[in-house]
From TrEMBL:
SUPFAM superfamilies with a match to the protein in the record: DinB/YfiT-like putative metalloenzymes (SSF109854)
UniProt-recorded Gene Ontology molecular function terms: isomerase activity; metal ion binding
NCBIfam families linked: maleylpyruvate isomerase family mycothiol-dependent enzyme (TIGR03083)
Protein name: Maleylpyruvate isomerase family mycothiol-dependent enzyme
Amino acid sequence: MMSGGHHIALAQAYDGIIRAVADLDDSDLQRPTRCHGWLVADLLLHVVGDAQRALVALASPVDGPPDTDDVSYWRGAGSGDDEGAARHAWWVRRSAAAFHRPTGIVRLWTDTAPAAVRAAGNADPDRCVTTQGHVLRVRDLLATLTTEAVVHHLDLVVDLPDAPRPGAAALRVAVATMDGLLSDDAVRPAGWDDEEYLLKATGRVPLTDHDRMELGEVAGWFPLLG
């Protein structure tokens, strides 16, 4: 969970994406990403949706207790609904194509992301809110948003080698999420840095034979989330 300064990691995660896309032209925004079928502009619009969802959730307080936290939120996420995922992917592509120019999505992101961060900074971290059918504390909501933003930042820059990488505070939250999903009885291979861990834990990069040897039976748990 996020501790004091609960919104700082989210601010860093969203600012990292702003810095990665701010100077891209229409051509760069049509480069591929790690997300199947999505260009940079498409994926950025998907992330805009997360920031918009954050604004709605932070304005939707509910009575507790929470039914999930920042780790359990991800268990089962994205599994068993390939048809729904495909529909969402297609909706995002069509919605992104409706913009007059891809840079319009950048402007939408640079307006929306800071607003979500300001709302997060003003929220009581222990208050309960609702999103996507779950009740969770604000601090846990922000951790889920941070994790998704960091992973998608890595997705965005796969064909943008000069783009900045996610910041350290945001990376720590995403790594802590993967550690929680991995369980207390397993550890990642010592040779993995944080980015490699996130890419392999989310199935973006396949495990090597050496990885499988080091992980042992834990390799069967990968990807930890999709």
